[in-house]
Amino acid sequence: MSSTETRYVMSDNMVVEELPWGPHEWLCRPDIVAADKLLLVRVRVPVGKAHEFHRHPEMEEIIYIEAGTAEQWVDREKRLLGPGDSAHIPIDVVHVTYNAGDTTLIFLAILSLAEIEGPPLIDVSQEEPCKSLQREVTEKFRGN
Amino acid sequence: MSSTETRYVMSDNMVVEELPWGPHEWLCRPDIVAADKLLLVRVRVPVGKAHEFHRHPEMEEIIYIEAGTAEQWVDREKRLLGPGDSAHIPIDVVHVTYNAGDTTLIFLAILSLAEIEGPPLIDVSQEEPCKSLQREVTEKFRGN
User: Fold this and answer.
1) Contact at CB, A60 and B37, closer than 8 angstroms
2) Are the Cβ atoms of A34 and B88 closer than 8 angstroms?
3) What pLDDT sits at residue B83?
4) pLDDT at A72 over 70
5) Hey, what CATH topology would domain A18-142 get?
6) Is the ipTM of this complex over 0.95?
7) What CATH code is assigned to B15-142?
């Protein structure tokens, strides 16, 4: 069955990418199902780790916490989120997700659109004020 | 703070709608956050209940199971889904979600686009073959 005919995604046909801030389990992407508008990835962030500060020039995003505790930044605002909490990130707004707890953080990242023209992600972790913030918050959670 | 400035959605600011197949907890919608492309709703389906057969003429959807067991139909195909499993529903494809277990089924419905021109949902539960299927499957789960 070709990917465009696949409707169900389970542990045996999800696509796993190993990244520095934990495995990404892709559940909806154009190479897995007939996705046109939606991307879905489940991320497992080990204790003390974080996604770098980044932005998506063409994609809107929701972060939905499944297990653990996140310190979620959206622009200059941050909030501690637990299971069932979520954050909405408008297009091109800088954001980052830290594991702020003492267990693996599991969250869903939901993005739209699925098919875009330019790069999906711009790393801004080396630009100020993100660079200083990143250092500060990384040191805070390294103690965990 | 206006809804368009709200970035975080938790139990105290989600919007709950009571529907025949269980409460809908809206986590991302244009009246809650600055959503343009994404809708997110957590649905709690009691034992023996189901969403009616329906389709979304302008929206693509993902169903993601958080707890319990679903019999998920996409067009003529069905599958039993448990926690962490998902289904992708292309635009305008008929689908339905039954609680096939003996505990409350909790799933996330993720939809895009958020802003559309026409009706968000067309109920097709009174059209064949959905009408017969609906009767058959409803009777199957009523025994739970």
Assistant:
1) yes
2) yes
3) 98
4) yes
5) Jelly Rolls (2.60.120)
6) no
7) 2.60.120.10
Question: Is the CB of B27 less than 8 angstroms away from the CB of A64?
Answer: yes
CA angle B56, B57, B60 (to 5 degrees): 60
DSSP letters spanning B67-95 = ES-EEEEETTEEEEE-TT-EEEE-TT--E
A47 touches chain B (CB under 8 A): no
Mean pLDDT of A110-137: 82
pLDDT at A95: 93
CB atoms within 10 A of CB B84: 17
- In a 10 Å sphere around its CB, with 0-12 CB exposed, 13-18 middle and 19+ buried, how is residue A22 labelled? buried
Chain A residues close to B55, C-beta within 8 Å: none
C-alpha distance from residue B138 to each of B47, B50, B53, B127, B130 (Å) = 11, 8, 11, 16, 12
Alpha helices (H) in A1-144, listed in sequence order: 130-142
pLDDT in tens, B122-142: 888 888 887 888 788 778 777
| Nearest CA distance, A75 vs chain B (angstrom) | 10
Tell me which chain A residues have a C-beta less than 8 angstroms from the C-beta of B92. none
Single-letter code of the amino acid located at B138: T
Global pTM reads 0.89
Mean pLDDT of A96-117: 92
The answer to whether A7 contacts B113, with C-beta atoms less than 8 Å apart, is no
